[in-house]
Design goal:
D-Maltodextrin-Binding Protein, domain 2; 6-stranded mixed sheet; alpha/beta; 12 helices; metal ion binding; tungstate binding; 5-stranded mixed sheet; about 40% helix
């Protein structure tokens, strides 16, 4: 019956969070969490830990923070949101879409330059480092710097390192940081800028350089409950993620915690 219902709903445009919400309601699943693409492995592991305690397993939907924030603005019926930057959470707060008092800075990360695993590329990070010449006519894979947090951090860092102007016309703009990672992993781009946790999750790439943390504003992942939240376990799962036990899961995947 559930499968038949979902087949009926899918053709009329009930996709993404709306479809996930329908699955949660019909199948008795846990709260719906919209989260930055870089959190896939870690948040999945945290949801598994929560489910092992006897709770309904949360439904997870991953995409660029920018895309998710726009869905929430359009009243996507989700319970929790984890953004990869403060800006998109501020965007929702300004529209009064966050439950008062539920927002908390949660995780931290670093930016790295990645290359295919067989590459010998390596960089000493200093102003004017030869990033453009290292591309060899190829493109630099980055999440869209006009909207996606990883791309915004990358643009800020490269600007401060005085190399942005040398590469801005050679970008392979990706819809999210995992899409940028995939371009490098399959050899479609010789270099990319992603989070350190992304590089750790993909054996087909290697870190060619660590971007100095002082070259960009701190990478912070805020978590909040949404005003559209209706699942009775939403607040409890939020508190679990912020607990020592929950944060320990994310540290296993290379995230810093607050």
């Amino acid at each position: 019956m559930l499968a038949a219902l979902l087949l009926l709903l899918a053709p009329v445009g009930l996709a993404g969070p709306a479809l996930a919400r329908t699955q949660a309601q019909v199948g008795g699943r846990g709260p719906l969490v919209l989260a930055a693409a870089s959190l896939q492995e870690a948040l999945t592991a945290a949801a598994d830990s929560w489910a092992r305690k006897g709770h309904s397993r949360p439904v997870l939907s991953f995409a660029a923070s920018s895309a998710l924030a726009r869905q929430i603005e359009a009243k996507a019926p989700a319970d929790l949101f984890v953004s990869a930057d403060e800006e998109w959470m501020d965007f929702l707060a300004a529209r009064k879409l966050l439950v008062p008092g539920s927002r908390a800075d949660f995780l931290t990360n670093r930016l790295v330059i990645v290359a295919p695993a067989a590459s010998r590329a390596g960089f000493a990070m200093r102003p004017g480092f030869p990033l453009a010449s290292a591309l060899g006519g190829g493109r630099l894979a980055v999440a869209d710097p006009d909207s996606v947090p990883a791309g915004r951090y990358a643009r800020e860092a490269l600007t401060n390192l005085k190399v942005w102007q040398t590469v801005q016309m050679s970008l392979a703009r990706a819809e999210n940081v995992r899409a940028a990672l995939a371009l490098v992993a399959r050899g479609a781009a010789p270099l990319g800028i992603v989070y350190a946790t992304d590089a750790r999750a993909e054996p087909a790439v290697r870190v060619a350089g660590w971007i100095p943390a002082e070259a960009h504003r701190p990478i912070t992942y805020p978590l909040a409950r949404l005003t559209t939240s209706s699942h009775p376990d939403a607040e409890a799962f939020r508190r679990f993620l912020l607990s020592g036990e929950g944060k320990a899961v994310f540290r296993r995947f290379g995230f810093g915690t607050r």
